[in-house]
Amino acid sequence: MVQEFSESQRIVYYDTEITGCVGIGKLVDMMMLISEDHSASVGVTNEKVQSYGLGWVVTQHIVDITRLPKANEIVKITTKAENYNPFFCYRNFWVYDENGKELAKMHSVFVLMDQTKRKITRMQPELIEPFEAEYTKKIERLPLPKGPTVPDKKQEYKVRFMDIDANQHVNNVHYFDWMLDSLGADFLKTHTLKHMNIQYKQEIYYGQTAISEAQVDGVNTYHKIRVDDNPNCVAECLWTNN
Amino acid sequence: MVQEFSESQRIVYYDTEITGCVGIGKLVDMMMLISEDHSASVGVTNEKVQSYGLGWVVTQHIVDITRLPKANEIVKITTKAENYNPFFCYRNFWVYDENGKELAKMHSVFVLMDQTKRKITRMQPELIEPFEAEYTKKIERLPLPKGPTVPDKKQEYKVRFMDIDANQHVNNVHYFDWMLDSLGADFLKTHTLKHMNIQYKQEIYYGQTAISEAQVDGVNTYHKIRVDDNPNCVAECLWTNN
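Structure tokens for the assembled complex are given below, as produced in the milestone run.
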């Protein structure tokens, strides 16, 4: 039986956008918080992971959205570390409204990163077994997001001091903001996000400038964040017209 | 007896900065949330205020910080609408740690803004009396922040779609981020904020570019946010050396 972990959280006005709904980056942050709390609850605290010279890093999120919750709604977030192989751990998340209706779900890929070598390492039994996830030799063949081929939008965002969180990384929310803001208000006010597949390739540091390129093709948008010629983050979104 | 209202809130990692502590802008957001909850608890909801064609607007915050709380601390925030005169309402806030030790306090000035004329209006008895604040004819003579005279720092920040919250304004946190980020990491990593006096003069809208100018004079910093030649927001900070 794979262990499940849940927590309730209130959506507050400062986590919402002009639409009155929480932003997708903030919702992903909330899910990541639940995964940290889950880890701590089974004794795999950040401090313990760090004592091995390692850190959990997300390489991909695939998010499906039924409805983004509004300010003052209480949502329940549930997560499971579903299964793992020698290099990857797959985690699922579900967000529910107060009536138990599913608002969003997310499938995420976690790896263990060697903090000095900055390289992916093998799963450590002491850090993965407490989740009671299923071991499998199979590596999931997840769809990879396509970036823009001929970008029609481009914006630059200089990384701010406040963009780095207590985990010493550019917080998740900023990648989402850089990607979606580049689409502009005309698009964002007339479309609703239904699906996002985002892949993280390379970290971004304080002082660097993130170049956000996007391409709009009807209700599909393609995104790339880069500092130089190599992509740091790629994503693909599916929207509906309002 | 002036009514008091309190709520507890957890500091989460994505509300913190590289220091591990919550950012000042986020802490002010948390205090403002408590003031909204206080208002709702006495029947003065945002919807009720809007039904009068009005909205509460903050013109000034004066914050004193003993210690900014870290990720996973539970803080208690208390507020009181202390007193009011025909045009201004003065509200106090206190932030306490789990042992009841004061971490920060804030004194804030609220006005009622006519939403169509964009002008300050007189206090409405139905919107102010439920707080049981003391009526006084006296207008407080609060110290006004001095902006930079000869700015030595300047950064530009284009307002993003996500900077506008459900209240349809650039969220508080961004003014603080624009002001403090312009000081740079060298200053921010070696200094701790103890006092901030911030005055809001004019709204900033989506698509505008905020120009953040600052001047450093030892442990005093002076800030101005402007879009054109007129200041939109002015602040003065006092820091200690780490």
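Chain A touches chain B through 38 residues (CB under 8 Å). Chain A has five helices and twelve strands. Further analysis is deferred to the final report.
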